[in-house]
Amino acid sequence: AVSPAPDSTHRSLTRFLIEEQRAGHLNPELRLLIEVVARACKRISVAVGKGALGGVLGDAVAAGGDGASINVQGEAQKKLDVLSNEILLEANAWGGHLAGLASEEMDHSQPIPDAYPRGNYLLLFDPLDGSSNIDVNVSVGTIFSVLRCPEGVAEVGDQHFLQAGREQVAAGYCIYGPSTMLVLTLGHGTHAFTLDREQGSFVLTQRAMRIPEETREFAINMSNQRHWETPMQDYVRDLLAGSEGPRGKDFNMRWIASMVADVHRLLTRGGIFIYPWDRKDPGKAGKLRLMYEANPMSMLVEQAGGAATDGRERLLDVLPGQLHQRVPVFLGSKREVEEATRYHVTHDSAT
Ligand code: P6P
User: Fold this and answer.
1) pLDDT digits (tens, 9 = 90+) for 193-250
2) Rounded Cα–Cα distance for residues 88 and 221 (Å)
3) Which of 44, 163, 199, 216 has the fewest CB atoms within 10 Å, measured from its CB?
4) Distance in Å, CA 284 to ligand 1 centroid
5) Contact 25/186 with Cβ under 8 angstroms?
6) Which of 71, 129, 173, 253 has most ligand 1 atoms within 8 Å of its beta carbon, as the pocket-test mutant?
7) Ligand 1: which residues within 6 Å by Cβ?
8) Which atom of ligand 1 is nearest to 126's Cα?
9) How big is the CA angle at 23 (ends 18 and 25), to the nearest 5 degrees?
């Protein structure tokens, strides 16, 4: 029998990472980090998949037992938020590949405990993004970002994480949907792996994802429309005018309100995802967090041929001022992101 051509065999994540290491795209320490995060995501997938049968739905209870537990974002934590955070912390403590971790669910970053060896990387994550969708059985996900720890740091603190998104050495998410998929970039393309539950391993199912440069699909929460700034109002007005307006084509809208699911859709078939600044919370620059939501998603999108801005400048060039800062997000099909950004830049230069 003729053996299958080398590329016809499904590659496991491990084989893919070995080949990337051989290509010089990552070193053994970073490979271990990615494999540990992927293994933690498999455990989160099992917990999420149990739903009501796992006894982990609903709000986490505050330590004192009275009322819901509230995180640093001021949001009620779900039991699965806390569980997912613990799974990622425990999985990454002993490996020796990290100098510290930061999470949406933790007020401050944490150095690796003294009991374990320390490595050269910093891991940031949103352990379970979109968790308000858990209770209504909608896809949610884990988002992660990897930075290098600056040289000669004895004890990692928040300030060591404050690097622009262009400094990321790897980024990815795991989406817990009808299938569980890990989408990953090491700076050489964006690649998708599907969890084979029988083997318990991620299998490469899409190498080098490409986002179409044009799109007819936008994702935004329209209920905030009256709170947007003028260029945002103008841009969406023209989208809604469709073929009868200046854009000359009709658009469709999707909003899952789970960033991982909305971004996975546009990575797969194109689209633009927007969470703009709004005057509902004028003190906050939008709702999404720069370090562990916008930056990793922007790297994945750019590596797939898309674009990402904060409405004015490239998102990966935004210099962070604090760990949990928020940022307006425009990302997806390159031409559409450029068009939405043009409305903002033109408006600014005219005022
Ligand atoms: P809204 C989920 O809570 C999240 O952080 C993102 O996953 C999602 O894109 C956004 O907020 C949804 O926000 O205001 O539409 O509920």
Assistant:
1) 999 999 999 999 999 999 999 999 999 999 999 999 999 999 999 999 999 999 999 9
2) 30
3) 199
4) 14
5) yes
6) 129
7) 129-130, 132, 221, 257-259, 262, 287
8) 5
9) 85
Please state the pTM of the whole predicted model. 0.95
Element at 29 (helix H, strand E): helix 28-50
Cβ-count burial 176-196 (b if 16+ within 10 Å, e if not): bbeebbbbbbbeebbbbbebe
Q: Which amino acid is at 31?
A: R
Query: Which of 42, 33, 20 lies closest to 99, judged by CA?
Result: 33
pLDDT tens digits, residue range 61-107? Answer: 877 777 778 777 777 777 888 889 999 998 888 888 999 999 999 99
For residues 310 and 318, is the Cβ–Cβ distance under 8 A? yes
Cα-atom radius of gyration of the chain, to the nearest Å? 20
